[in-house]
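Hi support team,

I submitted a single chain yesterday and got back a structure, but I'm not sure I'm reading the token output correctly. Could someone confirm the output below corresponds to the sequence I sent? I've pasted both exactly as they appear in my results page.

Thanks,
R.
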Amino acid sequence: MTDNETLMTVIAANARVAAGRLASADDATKAAGLMAAASALRDGMADILAANDIDMDAAVAAKISAAMLDRLKLDEARVMSMASAVEQVAVLEDPVGQCIDSRIRPNGLVMERVRVPIGVLGIIYESRPNVTADAAALGLRSGNAIILRGGSEAVHSNRAIHAAMLRGVIQAGLPAEAIQLVPTQDREMVGFMLRAQGVIDMIIPRGGKSLVARVQDEARVPVLAHLDGICHSYVHKDADPVMAQSIVINAKMRRTGICGSTETLLIDQDYPAPAALISGLLDAGCEVRADDMLMELDARTVSAEPEDWDTEYLDSVISARVVSGLDEAMAHIARHGSHHTDAIITADESAAARFLAEVDSAIVMHNASTQFADGGEFGLGAEIGIATGRLHARGPVALEGLTTYKWIVRGQGQVRP
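Hi R., thanks for writing in. Yes, this is the structure output for that exact sequence:
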């Protein structure tokens, strides 16, 4: 057994013990731990920002993309937002112990399904240091022990945030092993986590396509993830032009590096103001890769290639095309989408109803920016990620998504005939 394998074995064993303690911790204790952790994040602002400066300097020197730099960057406002997100999780209703449903059988047996923690969660993530706080908060609140393995580009930021969170956990009398940060950046540790079946109960990757693909390909542990965020905004022929203009620019340009950013714009052939949509995006600094019809509207556009319809840019780039109507828009999304978030902009309620019912994505929207694809915006507090599969959890995954259930059966001496 290598030193890293021994280290991972110890971390996982400690997490399992901590998970047992968390599962029986009362709601007030878990909430108090998170409130203390939020205060520690604010108190540790200077240390966290100093650590982030080290990571940012290294990232700039390494010439990573602007989108990745935006994900990595922390400032006072973002640290304060991180602390607020932890507090929001602290005041959410505790899912552990909730009765999902119950029934009384003809023989008098009372059967209940009750929410319980999943157990030990492994979080493998890149760039975003806020994931350290979000994952720790959600894990603790839902009674799960968390093993965090952040990317090397955010190593100093992650350590500073983890240290602050840990102070709050310990202050509340909860086990320090409830939120463990893997202390080495050796990539071998990721492999050990992925093969830790029976020790780690679920892996949640947060990062780029290559990371998520590796996790899904190699994992022997159940994975909760999405691979791409190829999100669409479809401007229907009956969309209000002022609303459509506002939503489309926000959906693409508010933050281009998040998974809820619109990557493809679909415009109905009968929509009256397509040129304004294209020029609005271009004026906002977005490169528009357009089909032949839209290229005729503005000389600043560039020609879309076939691969553009299947690309998550995470940058100030959008692909755009004209569609003949609702059916072609939904067919395009079915062929090229990633089942993440797709939106229709229209005043036609029947068209909206069809879109919402028939588009097979984790999140479907009517007259709203795809940038709302975020657990905080759904009232879930911080999120652990967006799930695009069909099992267990879908869409923003927060507290309920980090629980499973067990059956509790109460009898009065019944025996089976």
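A quick pointer for reading it: The chain has 14 helices and 16 strands. Let us know if anything else looks off.

Best,
Support desk
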